[in-house]
Amino acid sequence: MTTDRPTEGLRARKRRETLARITDAGICLFLEKGYQATTLDEIAGAAGISRRTFFHYFKSKDDILLQLQSGMGEMIAEAVRQAPQGVRPLDAVREAVLQICSAIPADEMLALDRLMRSSDAVMARKQASYVEHENTLFEALRERWPEREKESALRLVALLGVGAVRLSTERLHLEDGARSLIDLLREAFETLRAEI
Fold first, then answer.
1. I need a surface site. Which of 43, 68, 77, 151 has the fewest CB within 10 A?
2. pTM for the whole thing?
3. Do 111 and 15 share a domain, yes or no?
4. How far apart are CA 148 and CA 100, in angstroms?
């Protein structure tokens, strides 16, 4: 049986595995000791690598947390590309967001949010990453709905979709996890649907 995807080379697989090991070690230590109290040397030791090797993968420990969010925009965009024919753009974004975010356990999402909020630098970079997610989502929407006259509306859908994620994450924090992120996302998109 032949697949369209090339097989992953040994070097690429080892790099991916090391990246995952560093990320897992960092998150475990952050949860155990706190973000500020965890050192790069501890992360490297727990991952079984040298401090120097750490810098081949990450510039700082901030990047470990941010990596968890960095792929979100592309995952949502890919889900939008796979949306069924005939669906409206906002509904495609809603379903994509719910699909991607439902894969993360609620308690893990709350713990990661708390970790990110423990660093002003991480929070500033997290907020900036939302603009990247909006652009990535907009490009996917334009691929699905290439009509030029829809471009402004699609830009707005991308802004609203990512805005719903931002608002829901903020509510998750303010409510201290009383409701799940998925419930908050559903509510945000229902509010959008009612107002548009």
1. 151
2. 0.79
3. no
4. 28
Place of tokens 């707005």: 156
In angstroms, rounded to a whole number, what is the distance separating the alpha carbons of residues 64 and 55?
11
Contact in structure between 117 and 170 (CB atoms under 8 Å):
no
User: Same domain, yes or no, for 94 and 191?
Assistant: yes
Closest CA to 126 of 64, 66, 59: 66
Q: Which residue is associated with the tokens 């829809």?
A: 150
Cα–Cα dist 18/194, whole Å: 46
Contact 61, 44 (CB under 8 A): no
How far is residue 71's CA from residue 78's CA, in Å, rounded to a whole number? 11
Q: Which residue range(s) make up the domain with 100?
A: 66-195
Q: What is the pLDDT of residues 4-22, one digit of tens each?
A: 445 678 888 899 899 989 9
